[in-house]
Design goal:
The protein is an all-beta fold and 162 residues long. It has no helices and 16 strands. Strands 1, 3, 5, 6, 8, 9, 11, 12, 14 and 15 form a ten-stranded parallel sheet that branches. A six-stranded parallel sheet has the order 2-4-7-10-13-16, with no helix packed on it.
């Protein structure tokens, strides 16, 4: 794994409110692995894992059930890997919502690989606010993703409204 500045491994979360795990800035080169996060499908605004303004983060081998995004990436994320994650139900794996604020940092270098997404509204998506400020999302890789009973397997939403 190399040098890690933070590791959250073998974590089980029960009935968390808003974000089950939030990672905001600092501690680059961190792993979040083997998280079990069950939240009811009807729970609102309960992202499983939210990462913002961070780099070198790996989300690995996790099972996330939520009423919102299983994994969400905010502005300022770079070199992010999401791998071997199971997501059901919820809104899938999301970049954004972006563009609500002026001068948000770019999102770049994101890889989502070998994930299974079942019974969700979306599979993988990029979402921006209506009439959003300019921003950059680049170098995105979605590989070997299995989707079952998913409304929108891949979605770029230019007018996201929660």
């Amino acid at each position: 794994m190399g040098k890690l500045n933070m590791a959250a491994m073998f974590v089980s979360i029960v009935e968390a409110q808003v974000f089950d795990i939030g990672k905001y800035g600092g501690a680059p080169n961190s792993d979040i692995a083997q998280v079990i996060s069950p939240a009811p499908e009807e729970s609102i605004n309960t992202d499983g894992i939210h990462i913002s303004r961070s780099s070198g983060i790996k989300v690995l081998e996790s099972n996330i059930k939520t009423g919102d995004d299983c994994v969400s990436l905010g502005d300022g994320c770079s070199d992010i890997t999401i791998e071997r994650v199971t997501c059901r139900p919820g809104h899938g794996i999301s970049v954004g919502s972006l563009g609500k604020y002026e001068k948000e940092d770019p999102v770049t270098g994101v890889t989502v690989r070998n994930c299974t997404i079942t019974g969700t509204m979306n599979g993988v998506r990029i979402k921006t606010w209506p009439d959003s400020f300019e921003g950059i999302v680049s170098n995105m890789h979605f590989e070997d993703i299995i989707v079952n009973n998913v409304g929108n397997p891949v979605l770029i939403d230019y007018a996201y409204c929660p």
